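From the thread on structure requests for the teaching lab: each student submitted one protein with a one-line request. Submission from student K.M.:

"Model 23014_t:CDS:1 from Racocetra persica, tokens only."
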Amino acid sequence: MGLISLSNSLNLIRQNIPKLSRGFASQTSVKVPITLHGIDGRYATALFSAASKTNNLNNVESELKQVKTAIKKDAKLNNFLEDPSLNRNQKKLGVQELLKQGKYCDTTKNFFQVLAENGRLNETIKIIDAYTSLMAAHRGEIHVTIITAKELDPKLSDKLKASLSKSKFVKPNQTLRIENK
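Reply posted by the TA:
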């Protein structure tokens, strides 16, 4: 991608974060499937808007999953993101180095630059989880967690899924995802 494209996606992210943090999410032209709150919700929504405008929603989601996996596996990387003693410039340089190691689209690269500039890298996992929730809602997925003393038998789980699928809470164009804990 060229410098113009890189600049455009960075500007989209930067423009959306201040609007959202002031409560003007309705001013963005992208229809966000659910409203999220908190710092992680604002940043995830801004990233969703920027990725949507550049037609990179799924690409950004898969790249964020790669980053999350890397953070979970690498204690040094996790410590780098969480370390409050590093200044924003050091974090920005560290993020640039990290993102050189993989193939990431401009939207993802620029998003992490914005996180570094704003001192929000410590929120990375929460933001990734929030973005994943936005994408699930965008795809029409409804996640249901069922907590039981012991794991449900597959027949009972299927009956429960069929029953819930017919409820008024699940629309015909939505997919039910059940997790048993």
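TA comment: The chain has a mean pLDDT of 85. The beta strands are 141-146, 175-180.
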